[in-house]
Write a structure and sequence with these properties.
This protein has eight helices and 15 strands. By secondary structure, the protein is α+β, with helices and mostly antiparallel strands. Helix 3 crosses helix 4 (128-137) and helix 4 (128-137) packs across helix 5. The protein binds glutamic acid.
Length: 297
């Protein structure tokens, strides 16, 4: 699971998003991308590899009117870590863009349904089906489309969604993958990790599983997937960046040792077929024979 950062306010969004991505770099990633909403236009740029490469790609963007956007670092679970599979993913009209941390476990069934409905699937990821499912449910209200789509999804997610047709909101949701809303002055943020937004605000609301946040520049509202209203609990972050990166542990090594059970669980999620007990390791493109011949050196 990798990194999410989103910004909506009066400032130019791109430098804020890129700085946020750099803050998330320590988590490791294989590709990165950004979606900007610029006066009713959606601009999406993504690249495989380091954030430096994404920086090269965005150099020529005219981002003067882009005060709102989302950015992602990906740690591929389904589909190669190439530019096409990098997030954000978009619907075929290129109006809705989505970034996702986690794994959609029932993506195969949803993919088949979407193909039957005439949707064209462009990538090998589990994530892409979500953006089409949101489009399928979209009738003008982005939050409602996200809510209805998530009702059909099994798995883990932290997501952030923007649309050129709803240029004043970011919709974010969480299930088993951390997500926080940062509250600023005339500007708001979303992030998978407070370190990405800490230099802008210390006031945050941690989303709980099953919650959806609709974030605009001036305010935000939180509901559940069942559409119940939630009263946000604003917390003040007192940790500094170094403490956050170590998640309260004294050393990175200790943190990584303690995180091993969760990391393994996440790696297997969506890949164990409970009918025949056979794991399907998508993304590992080796034949059984090749695996058998691997020598430990
Ligand atoms: N499962 C998604 C993918 O492979 C998201 C991976 C992530 O959490 O970065 O694209």
């Amino acid at each position: 699971m990798c990194g999410i950062v989103g910004y909506i306010g009066q400032k130019n969004a791109l430098p804020i998003l890129m700085e946020g991505l750099r803050r998330l770099e320590y988590r490791g990633y294989d590709s990165a991308g950004v979606a900007l909403v610029c006066d009713k236009n959606l601009i999406v740029v993504k690249s495989a590899g380091k954030i430096k490469r994404l920086e090269e790609e965005i150099k020529d963007i005219d981002d003067m009117e882009c005060t709102h956007g989302i950015a992602h670092t990906r740690w591929a679970t389904h589909g190669e870590p190439n530019q096409n599979n990098a997030h954000p993913h978009t619907d075929s009209a290129e109006e809705i863009a989505l970034i996702h941390n986690g794994i959609i476990e029932n993506y195969r069934a949803i993919k088949e349904f979407l193909i039957q409905q005439g949707f064209k699937i462009k990538t090998d990821t589990d994530t892409e089906i979500l953006v089409h499912l949101i489009r399928y449910n979209y009738k003008g209200d982005l939050t409602e489309a996200v809510r209805l789509a998530l009702g059909q999804v099994e798995g883990t997610y932290g997501i952030a969604v923007v649309s050129s047709q709803n240029p004043d909101v970011i919709v974010a949701a969480r299930m088993g993958s951390p997500l926080v809303v940062g509250h600023g002055d005339g500007e708001n943020f979303v992030a998978s990790d407070v370190s990405a937004i800490l230099e802008h605000t210390k006031k945050v609301v941690y989303l709980e599983d099953g919650e959806i946040a609709t974030v605009s520049a001036e305010s935000y509202k939180i509901t559940t997937i069942e559409n119940d209203k939630i009263t946000p609990q604003i917390e003040e972050v007192t940790w500094n960046l170094d403490q956050i990166e170590k998640a309260g542990y004294e050393h990175f090594m200790l943190k990584e040792i303690e995180e091993q059970p969760a990391t393994l669980r996440n790696a297997f999620r969506g890949r164990l077929n409970y009918d025949d007990g056979i794991p399907r390791l998508d993304g590992l493109n080796l034949q059984a024979e090749e695996l058998r011949n691997i020598k430990r050196t």
